[in-house]
Amino acid sequence: xxxEILQLCPLMPSLEAALAERFTVHRFxxxxxxEAFLDGNAGRLRxxxxxxxxxxxxDLAARLPALEIxxxxxxxxxxxxxAEARRRxxxxxxTPDVLTEDVAxxxxxxxxxxxxxxxxxxxxVRAGRWxxxxxxxxxxxxxRRYGIFGFGRIGQxxxxxxxxFDAEIGYASRSPVDTPVRAxxxxxxxxxxxxxxxxxxxxxxxxxxxxxxxxxxxxxxRGLLVNVARGSLVxxxxxxxxxxxxxxxxxxxxxxxxxxxxxNQLLALPGVVVTPHxxxxxxxxxxxMADLVLANLDAHFAGREMPSALV
Length: 311
Hints:
The protein is an alpha/beta fold.
């Protein structure tokens, strides 16, 4: 009989088809009565496939006595209790590296869009307002100071792209990095130096709301905040207050505190560019992520080393 696994969210159709070929897949997000489903099936479920935005809720994990592996279709693992997984001997994997380029590319796109007012320009033309006059002037992208908080794979990829804009680049990170890029002791010091503060760090209890009112104050009234990491790193009410009061100039955001719900106050602000957590959303990268999810599952159930195991 095929191994039974639990799917917690919709996935790319090709990945869902490949999972169905290998396993008996239970689509938990479609269950009419989740409690009844767990009562009847929990003891047979050996794997969970989930997204980084969702992870595996602790109470659900506790209901799965036969669980062996959690395969995350994404790079984020902050919503899986890794300590508890280690205690239980449950393997956990994610899909690093394969989405680095796309996330870094979107960060650049958000920066250019916000500083050069590309969304506003598009709306201006489509609404026929160009006939009435030009859009107000935007801001240069080149030769500015860019601070990157989080200087792992994605942060360094963003820095390489920014170098093409003749930019000054600084970073702050939990761990020092062997790089010629200027290091700052913490995010507040980095923000005070930066024209644009780019958030590219992992989500963790330590980084929750790390972009708070003090950091935004340090960034200043001409500063731009860009977030391609996780919404939990930014104190969203503090960000809205800073934007409304003009304490920072704008924000370009791919991630939010309570996705897919985005505060109307944020959407109403003219200096804000938003995208729907789409940094890894290309055909090529989503297929590479799917391939890595399958590779981790196949390796685990075959008793081989998993290619991207976290635990």
